[in-house]
Design a protein that fits this description.
Distance between the termini: 62 Å
Shape: globular
Helix content: over 70%
Largest sheet: 3 strands, antiparallel
Strand content: under 5%
CATH class of one domain: Mainly Alpha
CATH architecture of one domain: Alpha Horseshoe
Strand order of the largest sheet: 1-2-3
Length: about 650
C-alpha cells in the first residue's frame, strides 16, 4: 500500500481503538465504526452492495444503500478533521482504506505470520491483546456479528498454534524460560487444553521447577473437574507423580550426549511439523519433516528407527494433505509402515495405514482404500488407539457409501459412534455426524440428514473448527439441493465457502465449488458456473485427484452441451464414463450417464441415445439402492417420456 501523509493506528485485538497521529478518532455512529473496522480488518476493497448487505441486511436494499452512504459520510467528515481525507478511497462501486502496512494490528499480524521467521512470529503474537473487537457489537447486523465470530475463532486458533511453535523453537535452543513464557500465554488462552498443559508442566520439570510443575498440575486438575467433570490423563499425572529427572543444563557437556542431542533436534523438527499440520500449513509441515529426517542419527541409537519412521509418516501426511504429489506421499508412508512393523509400534502403524487409505481414496482406488482402513482398524484395536479406530470406521463407512454399499457403511458408523461415545471423543463425532448425514442423503431421508448435519454443525461451532463448520453447512446445502430448493442451496454453499476462504482446506473448497457449479448449471447460469469448473478441473488434474476429476469433467461436459458444443460435450462424457469404468466405480459411471442422458434430451436436436443412457443409470441406481438419485432420475425419465 502506498505511504499516506498522516499515520492511522487501528487496534482491533481487544477493545477497538482508532488513532490518527496519536489522537483518538471520534465516531458517534456505531455502524460507521463497524464499517471502518471491517475495511481495516479485511485489508482489501469491498463493493458497496456487499457492505450494505453486511451491515444493513435487515433493511430494504434502497434503505441499506442510503445508510451506507450516510456512514461513509460520517467517516469522511471525521477523517477530514484530522487532515486524513485520503485514507478512505474508492469509487461508485468499491470502497477501501489506504493504510500503511503496520497501521492495522490484525492485517499486520497476518503479514508477519506469512513471513514465518521466528522474529516475525514473536512480533505477531505480541500484537494479540485480546479477542477481536472485544466489547463491540451491533444490535441489528447479524452478518457483521457472524463475521466477527468466525474471524475471531480463526485468529485465536492461529495465535495458539503460533505460541506453541515459538515455544518449541525456544525449547530446541534450551531457552527454558522463554519457552515457558510462551506456553503460559497459551494456557491462559486455552486452560482446558491438556496437550498445552502437558508441555508447560513438562518444561517446568525439565528445568527443575518441580514446585511450579505441581502447582500448574493442581490448577489444571481443578479447572478440568469444575468445567468438564473430568480428571487429567495418566500421561499428565505421570509428569508430576513419578521420580523427577535431573534438570537439564546447557552449560555442562555431560548433560546430553551427542546421540540424545541429535534425537532432541529431530524431535523438535517433528513437533514443529505436527503443529504446522494442525494449522493446515502443509508446506511448513513438510519442511520441518525434511529437516528432521536430514539429521544424522547414530546407527547404534535404539530410537533411530522410530524417529525416522515418524519423520516419514509426517512428511507423507503433509504431502497427502497438500495434494500435489500423491506418489511421493505414498512412498514416505510406505517407508513408515515398514519401520513401524519392524519396531512393532502399533499405535503409529495404525495412523500411517489410515493416511495410506486416504491417499488411495484420493486416487480413486476405493476398494484398496477400504482394505487399508480395515487393516488400520485392526491395528488400532490391538494398540487400544481408539481415536484412530473410530476414524478408520468412519472413513470405511464413507468410502463404502461411494461404492453404493450403504448397509456396510451404516454398520461401520454404528461401531464408530459406539467407540466415540464410550471414550468421549468429541473430535471423532465431528467426522461421524458428517458421514451419517451423507448416508441419509444417499437414501433420500432429508429430515434425518438435516438432524445429523445440524448436530455436527453445533459441535463444530462449539469447538471452533472452521473446516467442519463449512463442511456441515455444505451438507445442509446438499439437503436443500435434494429437496429442489436450489436458491437456498446456493446461499448455504456460498456461506460455507466464505467460512474457509484463505484458510487452507483446499480439498473442501474444491468440493464446494463443484457443488456450486452444479447449482448454477441447474438454473442456467453458465457464467457463474464456468469459473468454478475451470478451477476444479485444473486442481484435480494437477493433483491427480481421480474422483474430483470425474465429477469436474461430468459437469464441464454438461456446460459444453448447454452452450451448444454437443460434439465436445459428447466426447468428454464418453471419456469420463470410460475412466470411471476403469476405476471400477459403477455409481460414478451411472451418475455420468444420468447427466449425459439428460443433457442429450435438453440441449441437442441431433439423434442421440439419451433415453437409453438414463435407463442404464436407473439400473445401477436401483441395484445399489441409491434412493435419492433414483428418485431424481425417475423425474427426468417421466419428462422424457411425455
Amino acid at each position: 500500500m502506498a505511504d499516506v501523509a498522516v499515520h492511522m493506528a487501528i487496534r482491533l485485538f481487544g477493545s477497538p481503538e482508532l488513532r490518527i497521529a496519536g489522537v483518538h478518532l471520534v465516531l458517534h455512529d456505531q455502524k460507521a465504526k463497524a464499517l471502518l473496522y471491517y475495511l481495516a480488518g479485511t485489508g482489501r476493497s469491498h463493493t458497496r452492495d456487499h457492505l450494505a448487505t453486511l451491515l444493513w441486511s435487515e433493511s430494504p436494499e434502497s434503505n441499506a444503500r442510503h445508510s451506507l452512504r450516510s456512514s461513509l459520510y460520517h467517516i469522511r467528515q471525521a477523517l477530514h478533521t484530522k487532515g486524513a481525507d485520503e485514507m478512505l478511497a474508492g469509487d461508485c462501486d468499491v470502497v477501501y482504506l489506504q493504510l500503511a502496512d503496520d497501521a492495522c494490528d490484525v492485517t499486520y499480524f497476518r503479514r508477519l505470520l506469512a513471513k514465518g521467521s521466528e522474529s516475525d512470529l514473536a512480533e505477531a503474537v505480541s500484537l494479540y491483546q485480546g479477542p477481536l473487537l472485544q466489547g463491540f457489537s451491533l444490535l441489528d447486523a447479524p452478518l457483521f456479528d457472524e463475521w466477527v465470530r468466525c474471524e475471531e475463532m480463526a485468529l485465536r486458533q492461529t495465535y495458539l498454534v503460533t505460541l506453541q511453535r515459538l515455544a518449541s523453537w525456544a525449547e530446541n535452543r534450551q531457552s527454558w524460560e522463554e519457552a515457558i513464557a510462551y506456553l503460559q500465554r497459551a494456557v491462559q488462552l486455552e486452560p482446558l487444553s491438556e496437550e498445552v498443559q502437558q508441555k508447560l508442566i513438562g518444561l517446568y520439570v525439565r528445568g527443575g521447577a518441580f514446585g511450579q510443575a505441581l502447582q500448574q498440575y493442581q490448577l489444571f486438575e481443578t479447572d478440568l473437574q469444575r468445567e468438564l467433570g473430568l480428571v487429567p490423563s495418566l500421561e499428565t499425572r505421570s509428569l508430576v507423580f513419578t521420580t523427577p529427572k535431573a534438570p537439564l543444563s546447557s552449560t555442562t557437556p555431560q548433560a546430553i550426549t551427542a546421540t540424545r542431542y541429535a534425537n532432541a533436534q529431530a524431535t523438535a523438527h517433528f513437533e514443529l511439523g505436527e503443529l504446522a499440520l494442525v494449522a493446515n500449513n502443509y508446506q511448513a509441515a513438510g519442511s520441518s519433516a525434511r529437516a528432521g529426517l536430514a539429521i544424522a542419527l547414530p546407527a547404534e541409537d535404539t530410537q533411530r528407527i522410530a524417529l525416522v519412521a515418524r519423520g516419514h509418516r509426517l512428511l507423507g501426511a503433509a504431502l497427502a494433505m497438500e495434494g500435489s504429489d500423491l506418489r511421493a506421499a505414498e512412498g514416505h508412508l510406505q517407508e513408515a509402515v515398514v519401520a513401524h512393523r519392524f519396531t512393532d509400534n502399533a499405535s503409529e502403524l495404525c495412523a500411517t495405514l489410515f493416511e495410506l487409505g486416504n491417499v488411495a481414496a484420493q486416487r480413486g482406488e476405493l476398494r484398496h482404500a477400504l482394505e487399508l482402513y480395515e487393516e488400520a482398524a485392526r491395528t488400532a484395536e490391538v494398540a487400544h488407539t481408539y481415536y484412530f479406530l473410530t476414524l478408520a470406521y468412519n472413513n470405511f463407512a464413507y468410502h463404502s457409501l461411494l461404492l453404493g454399499q450403504h448397509e456396510a457403511a451404516q454398520r461401520a458408523l454404528t461401531r464408530g459412534f459406539s467407540l466415540a461415545e464410550t471414550h468421549e471423543m468429541f473430535g471423532a463425532h465431528l467426522h461421524l455426524f458428517s458421514t451419517q448425514g451423507e448416508v441419509y442423503l444417499y437414501l433420500g431421508e432429508w429430515a434425518a440428514a438435516v438432524a445429523s448435519f445440524q448436530k455436527g454443525l453445533s459441535l463444530a461451532e462449539e469447538l471452533g473448527n472452521l473446516e467442519r463448520q463449512a463442511g456441515y453447512r455444505a451438507g445442509l446445502a446438499l439437503v436443500a439441493r435434494g429437496q429442489e430448493h436450489v436458491e437456498r442451496a446456493i446461499i448455504l454453499f456460498e456461506e460455507a465457502l466464505a467460512l474457509i476462504n484463505e484458510q487452507g482446506y483446499w480439498h473442501l473448497r474444491i468440493r464446494i465449488r463443484l457443488w456450486l457449479a452444479e447449482m448454477f448449471l441447474l438454473i442456467g447460469n453458465m457464467s457463474e458456473a464456468e469459473p468454478h469448473l475451470v478451477a476444479t478441473l485444473a486442481t484435480a488434474k494437477e493433483h491427480g485427484r481421480a474422483l474430483l476429476l470425474l465429477q469436474s469433467e461430468r459437469l464441464y461436459a454438461r456446460l459444453l452441451a448447454a452452450r451448444g458444443d454437443w460434439s465436445s460435450a459428447n466426447a468428454l462424457f464418453a471419456s469420463t464414463v470410460e475412466r470411471a469404468s476403469g476405476l471400477d466405480l459403477p455409481l460414478e459411471v451411472a451418475r455420468t450417464q444420468a447427466v449425459w442422458g439428460e443433457a442429450a434430451l435438453l440441449y441437442t436436436s441431433v439423434p442421440h441415445n439419451g433415453h437409453e443412457l438414463l435407463l442404464k443409470a436407473r439400473k445401477v441406481f436401483t441395484a445399489h439402492d441409491a434412493r435419492a438419485e433414483l428418485k431424481a432420475l425417475m423425474a427426468v425419465l417421466r419428462l422424457a417420456e411425455r
